[in-house]
């Protein structure tokens, strides 16, 4: 069964150095990497070990860098009609960043931003097989487990994504001075919206990838040249999260249990 409009279906790292990024994330998340075989693009496929393809890596070109591109993780959201979706996004105050493009044997994609400036892709795939990149049904190591939007206007963002993709609010959590953490549902829980931290330069999506043991993952991040920004922090379900920077400066997050007892 194909993914429906509004599902997260793919995750992409735009980075200054795909070789170094592969070394880092391979150590931390046990990912495997393969060339996409696209002659016109240097694109690397990310595979959660012994599981499924969950995303890709794209090297920042000189042209992209001249346009202001920096290392970042971006999510792909399924769209029934990419071109019609772009029109509605622009009408709602969003922006077209990369025009709709056909990728041979893959589908049609475009990069856009929401009205507050958070970047994401929309995509209509050619395959009728549902993506497993976001593990919504049950926990899968190496897959994305949570999609978190840090926005300068959470209420406006919730309205925007709700109207376009059918996401609904399903509860909230008081974070004190940090504001309210609003949970999002799209048939199943997909993530949350929260106010952007004051130090953040622009609104952005933040993705949590699942690891088997959060403490072991923290040590791997440090050993591989990454930086821990926050955590491990406890969350409901006897799990812990960390937020970090990879060696090229892209923000990433991890979630997992504390099995080592530290």
From TrEMBL:
Q: Which residues form the VOC domain?
A: 7-125, 140-257
List the Gene3D superfamilies: 2,3-Dihydroxybiphenyl 1,2-Dioxygenase, domain 1
InterPro entries reported in the protein's UniProt record: Anthracycline_SecMetBiosynth, Glyas_Bleomycin-R_OHBP_Dase, Glyas_Fos-R_dOase_dom, VOC_core
**UniProt protein name:** VOC domain-containing protein
Question: Which organism does this sequence originate in?
Answer: Zhongshania antarctica
